[in-house]
């Protein structure tokens, strides 16, 4: 199974939704809280080119935010992506 990394904050409802969707797929992501670390925020911005959370990566591929993840799921593409 692919490794999923999400950059989050504690109070982000989209982060909660992301974790809930991934959990329903049997995925326990690596979670990096950017609220607690300026270095983690800088890393997220460098990797994704974005400042908002969540930012989701499957292995080294940037998926985007929650809406992007949900769209992949709705299209039926998420399961295959997680298995690679």
From TrEMBL:
GO terms for biological process: cell redox homeostasis; cellular response to oxidative stress. One of its GO terms (cellular component) is cytoplasm. It comes from the Bacteria. InterPro entries: GLR_AS (IPR011767), Glutaredoxin (IPR002109), Glutaredoxin_subgr (IPR014025), GRX_bact (IPR011900), Thioredoxin-like_sf (IPR036249). Keywords: Cytoplasm, Disulfide bond, Electron transport, Redox-active center, Transport. One of its GO terms (molecular function) is glutathione disulfide oxidoreductase activity. Residues 4-63 form the Glutaredoxin domain. Has a glutathione-disulfide oxidoreductase activity in the presence of NADPH and glutathione reductase. Reduces low molecular weight disulfides and proteins. Belongs to the glutaredoxin family. This is Glutaredoxin. It comes from Pseudomonas monteilii. The lineage of its organism: Bacteria, Pseudomonadati, Pseudomonadota, Gammaproteobacteria, Pseudomonadales. The gene is grxC.
